[in-house]
């Protein structure tokens, strides 16, 4: 009798597990990206094994969704940075850690650490994204924290976000509020509205964070249009803290060639206001080629040059020598990216 009871309990547990599996799913995802980077800043140069040169840095994540019935679903997303050149992870799940409730008709409520609305224009409307020697963030001051280390240029902790539902005739949007809670929070509020239909995608975003007695404010407007033979990008970013401000503008294109695409961009930044390091301009030109060996594996190359003027001292890569005010920085990158 005892053995039969154990068997029934085991079968019941297996049935419950199977039912749960039928209603929910968990996915392991990420990418491993490694490259060789040769870069210069002023008269100094360096050769390094680096990571994260193609669209997104190396990462490891877990995401899942459960159907709660009645059109309601719950989901989670945990994502951490990976440094494959040394084999370690970095910063816990600092890239994203969220839990969500969502419906098809009402949209999504998302809680946790997430990308800010103002991040997406900088990332989406550039052929190189924000990574690698051609990344659009290379001449954005303070990236990914912001002016005055506001900590909300790319991500915000302790946030509550709302995403508009799909099916609004191409309209999409994200709105976020983040509470200021110790060193991990910074008190952010912002939003993004966009329109995507066929080859056209345009969006505008605004974000604001309290930093001491001043507010860190970011405004971005950008878009892309796919003509088939070429996809064009443009983005304008303006952020300021008190009397310190920086304006960035970018235009770019990607051209499909066989199993790959040629990517090219030109960006310009101008920073002004009181304080050290202000009063300079920078121009970045980047060109590269990405060859898709499969849907998940890509070989890529890129060359970038930043011409600094005045007090500007930007560099093309994290592994570059320290920037020198008013001196050029350049870099060549060859790498492979495998997504899973």
TrEMBL record:
One of its GO terms (cellular component) is pore complex. One of its GO terms (biological process) is monoatomic ion transport. Residues 10-311 form the Porin domain. Residues 1-22 form the signal peptide. It is found in: Cell outer membrane. It is a multi-pass membrane protein. Keywords: Cell outer membrane, Ion transport, Membrane, Porin, Signal, Transmembrane, Transmembrane beta strand, Transport. It holds the Pfam family Porin_4. Homotrimer. This is Putative porin.
